[in-house]
Design a protein that fits this description.
- 36% of the residues lie in helices and 21% in strands.
- It is α+β, with helices and mostly antiparallel strands and 256 residues long.
- The protein has one domain.
- Strand 6 and strand 7 form a beta hairpin.
- It is globular, with a radius of gyration of 23 Å.
């Protein structure tokens, strides 16, 4: 008489075979979808840059065409502020920040980023006449739950704010996530990053900024830690360990 009993070894081999098949299917799917995922990531980035440059309406749905027409993405060395010969499409800030050879630990890490890439992408936005009328700078800093990623659009004086656009965060809906609220974003245009002495003065003000405060923007209601994070992020990135060397050279020499 034959036995239908399963042996422990047979069970283990069956489970192992199923695991291998599932792993292979997941791997194949990931490889097959990578190009599409990369394209979607790039499109989202281009959309946010155009939003920061106030060109979304002008794009009228043609994100790629508008981006290619008006945006010149350039790599810079953050310590010197110099442009460098490197492809922005190959730049990965998160990867660089994990690599000690490609990043530093800031002396005054008020943004809570732990490590800062040695290089960054800056986006020079051309007008229809070909002159640079906006510069968009990426920013990174801690919120309540995790790092928040965004962009600051500046007028050609590199002091007057056009926009502050957050693109990636894990803040609480209705509280810290109000960084995405159009009403809050509408408070930024015209604010100044620096005072006349060149000191970084931009900040979020608990209880609301006064009408004549050219550096202050209303804090997020009920989200003190996120608001502090936004302030510290801006103050870090426009300070000496952020974009200040680039801004100083840009103002003195212009774009070459």
């Amino acid at each position: 008489m034959s036995s239908n009993k399963e042996t422990p070894l047979g069970t283990i081999l069956f489970v192992l075979a199923i695991c291998l098949v599932c792993a292979a299917l997941v791997s194949i799917s990931a490889v097959g979808l990578k190009d599409k995922q990369d394209a979607n990531k790039l499109l989202d980035q281009q959309t946010k840059v155009l939003e920061a440059a106030k060109l979304i309406e002008k794009a009228n749905g043609d994100i790629v065409g508008t981006y290619n027409k008006y945006v010149d993405a350039r790599m810079i060395d953050l310590d010197s502020g110099e442009f460098i010969d490197s492809d922005p499409l190959l730049f990965d800030e998160r990867r660089n920040a994990r690599d000690k050879a490609l990043s530093i630990k800031p002396e005054n890490d008020i943004a809570g980023i732990n490590r800062r890439s040695n290089t960054a992408v800056v986006y020079l936005i051309k007008s229809d006449s070909g002159s640079i009328d906006t510069v968009v700078l990426p920013i990174i800093g801690s919120g309540l739950w995790d790092l928040m990623y965004g962009y600051v659009g500046l007028e050609s004086d590199l002091n007057t704010v056009k926009s502050v656009i957050y693109s990636d965060h894990k803040e609480t809906p209705g509280l810290g996530a109000e960084v995405l609220n159009p009403k809050w974003k509408a408070l930024w245009p015209g604010k100044k990053i620096y005072n006349d002495a060149g000191e970084v003065k931009v900040k979020l003000v608990k209880g609301g900024a006064k009408p004549n405060d050219i550096h202050g923007v209303d804090a997020l209601s009920g989200a003190t830690l996120t608001s502090n994070g936004v302030t510290h992020t801006l103050q870090f990135w426009f300070g000496k360990e952020g974009y200040a060397p680039f801004i100083t050279k840009y103002r003195a020499e212009g774009v070459k």
